[in-house]
Amino acid sequence: MIKAVTYLKRRPGMPVDEFQAYWRTRHPEVVRKLPGLRRYVQSHTLRAGYEKHQPVYDGIAEVWFDDTNSLRALRETAEMAAVQADEVKFIDRITMGLIITNDHVIMDGATKPGMAKGIGFVKRKPGMSVEDFQRHWREIHGPLGLAVPGLRRYEQSHTRLAAYAQGREPKWDGISLIWFDDSKALRAGLTSREFKAAQTDDPNFITPGPVPFIITTEYVIVE
């Protein structure tokens, strides 16, 4: 299967509570009708993420399909048109984006409702090939994260190579997904010496500077 990841911000002026409620309870009505949809997950940025500043995103949506042909087949359908028409009611479509990814499970742990899900938006360092970046992230950097205390599950979603055809450059080369029992455990993990040790590898494959990051609650809409 392949996964489409949409990163998004709410419509300007819309309260966070209103945005999250609409996204979770109303928008799934149209998304569920997409032909070929296999799985659908929403991850909402925690309210604590708004206390000091606006987060980089208000959340992400993840939808799974059998293959790219299934995804392409949606383009001219009435069901996709209905999804897009509903998005303008609560999403700032100017700032939203989409990447098509392949998932790599680094730690295959179970998840449950209420866990804290950390999402990092990753960009490779200048001059590094996509293939070398993906290989380093998966085979070298990924195992370093396994030592972080409290980590329950760890996935990497790598942007598919087709996104780079004809010189195109997607906004993100992938996203990192990590699960902890709760936000306290997640923050403790991110301040641990094991996490800091893993961060020393960042300059070897990630663009300089902090990785944009949100802490979310995950809602599985379609299993």
Write the layout of secondary structure elements.
Blueprint: E1 2-8, H1 16-25, H2 28-31, E2 39-45, E3 59-65, H3 68-72, H4 78-87, E4 97-107, E5 116-122, H5 130-145, E6 153-159, E7 174-180, H6 183-190, H7 193-199, E8 213-222
Antiparallel strand pairs: 1-3, 1-4, 2-3, 2-8, 4-6, 5-7, 5-8, 6-7
Give the helices and strands as they follow along the chain. EHHEEHHEEHEEHHE
Number of helices: 7
Shape: globular
Number of domains: 1
How many beta-strand segments? 8
CATH arch. level architecture: 2-Layer Sandwich
Q: Please write the CATH class name.
A: Alpha Beta
Radius of gyration: 17 Å
Say what the CATH topology is. Alpha-Beta Plaits
| Major beta-sheet overview | 8 strands, antiparallel, barrel
Termini, distance in Å?
14 Å
Strand content: 25-35%
Mean pLDDT: 97
How would you write the strand order of the largest sheet? 1-3-2-8-5-7-6-4
* Protein structure class: alpha+beta
List keywords for this structure.
7 helices; 223 residues; Alpha-Beta Plaits; alpha+beta; eight-stranded antiparallel barrel
Descriptive account of the structure:
This protein is an alpha+beta fold and 223 residues long. The protein has a single domain (2-222), classed as Alpha-Beta Plaits. The protein contains seven helices and eight strands. It has helices at 16-25, 28-31, 68-72, 78-87, 130-145, 183-190, 193-199; strands at 2-8, 39-45, 59-65, 97-107, 116-122, 153-159, 174-180, 213-222. An eight-stranded antiparallel β-barrel has the order 1-3-2-8-5-7-6-4. The mean pLDDT is 97.
